[in-house]
TrEMBL record:
GO annotations of cellular component type: membrane raft
The keyword Signal is annotated on this UniProt entry: yes
GO biological process, one term: innate immune response
Protein's UniProt name: CUB-like domain-containing protein
Signal peptide positions on this chain: 1-16
Record's keyword annotation contains tRNA processing: no
PANTHER family (alphabetical): CUB_2 DOMAIN-CONTAINING PROTEIN-RELATED-RELATED (PTHR21733), DOWNSTREAM OF DAF-16 (REGULATED BY DAF-16) (PTHR21733:SF8)
Alphabetized Pfam families for the sequence: Glycoprotein
Amino acid sequence: MNFPIFLAFFICLVSAQQLIDLKTFRGKNVRNSINAHAPYDVFVSATSDDAEILAQIHLITQDKQNQTFLQLKNRKPFLTTSQIQPFPVQTTAYVTTNLTDEQVKNLTGMIFICTTNQQQINNFHVIDVDKPQTLYLPNENQTVLFLNSNMDSSPVQYSTISSWNQSSNSSIYFYKGIPTDLPEKDNTFIFSNPVSPTRATDHTIEFFSNVQKFSLGLGAFYIKYYGSLSFNIAPEYYDVNGTSTNSTTTTGFYMKPKSQKDRNVTIQIAQNSKDVGGVTGSNTVGTLPKNGKVTFGVRSADLEAKNPMNPSDEIQDWTTNFIGNQIFINSENGTDGEFFVQYYMRANQKMNVLILLAFSICLISAQQLIDLKTFRGENFKNFISAHAPYDVFVSATSDDAEVLAQIHLVTQDKQNQTFQQLKNRKPFLTTGQILPFPVQTTAYVTTNLTDQQVKSLTGMIFISTTNQQQMSPSPMDDTIAFFSNVQKFSLGLGAFYIKHFGDLSFNIAPEYYDANGSSTNSITTTGFYMKTKNQKDRNVTIFVAENTEHIYGDTGINIVGNFPQNGEVTFEVRNVGGKIKMDWNPKDELQDFATSEIANLIFINSENGTDGEFFVQYYMRGFQRKHILSTFASTDAPVETTTKGAGILNLVISILALVLCLEVSCD
């Protein structure tokens, strides 16, 4: 029978919460102390561990309470659910057992420690996913933790959720792991209803009354909800691959746990002849290796849109104005990672509107940079997924003119431009400035080339909204330092951009300049060096113009990039008296460093950085004569410093605003 569950209102606001695997304890009567500040509550989930074994493991408190783990596991007073009743501990406590260490290592259960906070009350509850059960969650604001120690399913520790019933004025969020004292970081939930894309769109915060059956392969996860809802949960695995949705307006979920191999997952979309238009989207969160990739997409018989990404611990969302007959999810190089995808689709009523779709694009704030090699050949219509009006620019320096002449951009208002024509829209004799080709309607790219011929293309097409064309930069603050002398430098980027205010000029050429071994032509100057992805680590030395007048001043850098976790970039300022250095793992926001010294040379190198990239702007500024020798350390040992602030310059050049955007990349 199904009865509404009675959720006991015990006080349990997590402050120093711990989830401990039983196999980590020691046997042979060792006292394994519980490292928590009393009072606290204890919960045990040990579905697959033998009862006789659990009866030999004891929790003993200083005030002489003694509970076996079998007793703790069975603290489930309700017949229809496996809600665990907390065991309160008011003093210090320890776990002990006469089992051998080898027997303990074979345990599969877990113990959850929840610190009680008497100052605050939170409706917190723990459910053991040890059997199929129906949860009727009352119309309240609550947090529910689910523990799954079931090792008898294949794969293990899977929880399947089905028969979803939720009122439209309620909300629910699923999170991986256990709750903590701190508020959850924004956009880190793995599933929600209403669905909450991170980007503002016309379907932001969308409630779905229909939720597809799904599984979570997690030993611990929790929900935060407000309002009433119910669902079934069972300790079993449900494979969504090959299934079909029961509606064209619905949401569902798929996850790949760590150590599971990459696979291709397809879900058929319910057919409804009355629903011909709509939106398909996804929220993706997770952690994959640097070279890992997750792709979510939707396809029909002749159209396809997809979004490849490397997921992070914050949601990345994607949508397309299209409902096909199949969605697909796959990953590459992801065996060591995990990811969570919430997909959704919302069908509109029948409309006499042609829904157009882009093939293999990446959306970046309505601006898109698309590699030509990602299009399909053989007269396939690769629709441009952008809201008209927009402008088109083509760069294809190394592609053959005869090949480009066979690729066409065709608009709904019957304009037809070959990519050779688009490439050559350069009306100025002395520069390569590209004249935009305006598109006022929907459009697609098509070619009679084979797919193999298209894959060998090296050019790119940039889609820019007309809003971007009308934007202009603002003048910079006049308090920042200006350098009239800028060293020659190179950028190894397929795309970069500048924002400027006022007059300036420079030469630019499609060639490489190696800064290593070069010398500055002044001691008041700024320059730049970058390491591209897949370039091996190297040592770069730049000599500073000879300082014959003992001028003193500042030397420093701004650094930004994206590096492996164990990667490191080192910047050193060297002189005859010694050296000062600073190490970083570059991030996507500037990190700066400065020292009050002008040296003989600067030195830049990296370690474990082949898969990463970084960008360094160095600078030095000389002041008046000073008859004091260098303040460098006199020993050979490097002087490490993390000092910031004094003398650190916010640079007007900032590598031409160093807003390089690092590179708009599309897979």
